[in-house]
């Protein structure tokens, strides 16, 4: 008498079930243990962290260069577009005095010299300049140049600097004058199928989103360096990872296109 098909007494059924169980176990070990440990940025990631990462459980970003109590936060400050209130001439005057120590790199009025690859601060929203200074001081945005300079700035100093630069008009750079570049599709529309938003949604001068810089006219190498830093996770002071998520899907060629477009404006 033949044994039922779905019975452990059926040798072929038993072999098939054992093979499937073995395949599932191997796949689980590879997917939940081996691959996450291989691709983890932190080589010392625990077994449980690797399993959670593979399962898609969100984990807070930890900056290895900061103390444990601060490492899980991308920044120490969240600002709004009106955080400074009305900008008065007294604040601008104090900021102008403080900006003298910044002029070597950022120019006397916030327009950096051509070829220095230093960002222009003139005309930037005060909330953007203020947040970056705060992040430089706290170490959430690492910089061997800016962190020592920002360390001794008080909160009022940073507000005054932000006020001063926001009142300055960026000078037209000779290399950018008269350029009418066609807007790249990645800038105007993004790539929805790859979860890449349009750059213009946040970085157009008319949008005025809090703590969001205007990219027009920034040096091309600087833009490329910052986008690559966000993509690689070396820069992580973006709240809710909006920049890291936006840049993660960009190719190096698209990053170059974006940088060239904004540098030419």
Distance between the termini: 85 Å
Question: Which regions have little confidence, pLDDT < 50, spanning 5+ residues?
Answer: none
Proportion in β-strands: under 5%
Average pLDDT metric: 82
Summarize the amount of helix as a percent range: 40-55%
Largest sheet: none
Can you tell me the overall shape?
Answer: elongated
The assigned structural class equals mainly alpha
- Integer count of domains: 2
CATH architecture label of the largest domain: Orthogonal Bundle
Radius of gyration over C-alpha positions, nearest whole angstrom: 25 Å
In CATH terms, what is the fold-level topology of the largest domain?
Answer: Cytochrome Bc1 Complex, Chain D, domain 2
Please provide a written account of the structure.
The chain has 265 residues and is an all-alpha fold. It has two domains: 1-59; 89-263, Cytochrome Bc1 Complex, Chain D, domain 2. It is built from 13 helices and no strands. Helix 11 (220-232) packs across helix 12 (242-248). The longest helix has 29 residues, at 11-39. It starts with 10 loop residues before the first helix and ends with a helix. The mean pLDDT is 82.
């Amino acid at each position: 008498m033949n044994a039922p098909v779905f019975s452990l007494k059926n040798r072929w059924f038993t072999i098939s079930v054992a093979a499937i169980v073995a395949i599932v176990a191997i796949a689980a070990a590879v997917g939940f243990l081996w691959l996450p440990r291989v691709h983890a940025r932190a080589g010392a990631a625990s077994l449980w962290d690797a399993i959670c990462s593979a399962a898609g459980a969100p984990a807070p970003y930890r900056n290895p260069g900061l103390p444990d109590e601060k490492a899980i936060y991308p920044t120490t400050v969240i600002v709004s577009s009106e955080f400074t209130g009305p900008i008065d001439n007294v604040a601008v005057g104090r900021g102008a005095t403080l900006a003298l120590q910044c002029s070597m790199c950022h120019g006397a009025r916030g327009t950096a010299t051509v070829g220095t690859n230093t960002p222009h601060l003139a005309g930037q929203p005060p909330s953007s300049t203020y947040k970056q200074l705060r992040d430089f001081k706290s170490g959430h945005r690492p910089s061997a140049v800016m962190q020592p300079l920002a360390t001794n700035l008080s909160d009022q100093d940073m507000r005054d600097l932000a006020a001063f630069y926001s009142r300055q008009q960026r000078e037209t750079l000779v290399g950018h004058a008269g350029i009418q570049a066609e807007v790249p599709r990645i800038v105007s529309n993004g790539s929805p199928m790859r979860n890449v938003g349009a750059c213009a949604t946040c970085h157009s001068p008319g949008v005025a989103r809090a703590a969001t810089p205007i990219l027009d006219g920034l040096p091309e190498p600087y833009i490329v360096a910052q986008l690559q830093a966000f993509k690689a996770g070396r820069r992580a002071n973006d709240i809710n990872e909006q920049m890291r998520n936006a840049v993660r899907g960009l190719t190096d060629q698209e990053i170059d296109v974006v940088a060239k477009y904004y540098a030419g404006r």
